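Changelog note: in this version the structure field was regenerated for every chain. One regenerated record is shown below for reference.
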Amino acid sequence: MNAIFTVAGKEFRDGLRNRWVLAITIVFALFAIGLAWFGAAAAGHVGFTGVATTIISLATLAVFLIPLIALMLAYDSIVGEDQQGTLLLLLTYPLSRSQLVTGKFLGHASILGLSTLVGFGVAGVVIGLLGGGVDAGQLAGGFGMFIGSALLLGWSFIGMAYLISVMVGDKSKAAGLALVVWFLFVLVYDLVLLALLVGTEGAVSSVLFQVLLLFNPTDVFRLINLTGFEAAREYAGLTSVGADAYSLPLLFGVLAVWAVVPFLLAMWRFRHRTA
């Protein structure tokens, strides 16, 4: 365990030194505060409009931003070391391949986790102080649910980034695959589901459709946040189909599985690599 935490600490310190933590934290904080105040600008209203509206705005755009940041943060975690010639050096140290990849994963997960907690947490505090008449309990509950699901969503895509990084031998190819993964999960998957509904004229059973939503972590994230408030359900789009099918604990459990499985696959693949 000491070896794992040593590697994780090094990755985290590298993130601090490279300003990753600061940059992501600022992006998340400004993103959340800006959406809270200007999310209803199209309707002619500027200012905090309510917890449900804020969570809707945050979840709608965070589902694009968080996976992209997670993938860009970790796509070169292994292949980058390999191309720099430092991977073989690391493997000469008294630690196993599993310990190495676990430590690096924990380091990157800590970078994104701290940035998510601080960035969105600060935004929640600012909204609570300046929002005027905000229900503190509802705000804390809404932001707590959002931050928790955002953490798991980010870790899911960090795991995918590691899986990409151990499968390719070229950093530029890893970057390209990371963008493809982002495109498929964030944009294409829901379009395919929509095409399935239209192509079959709604003949697809609601149970099957609800199950298919669980095969995409971004849809699980939407289910948690866009259906967690009754007022938000009309904006949930395709995910409204699964609004009443799953409980919040189950959805958080599914998202946790998404955070673990890609990483375990990456660990298995790395252990069986020849170099």
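Spot check on this record: The mean pLDDT is 85. The chain has eleven helices and no strands.
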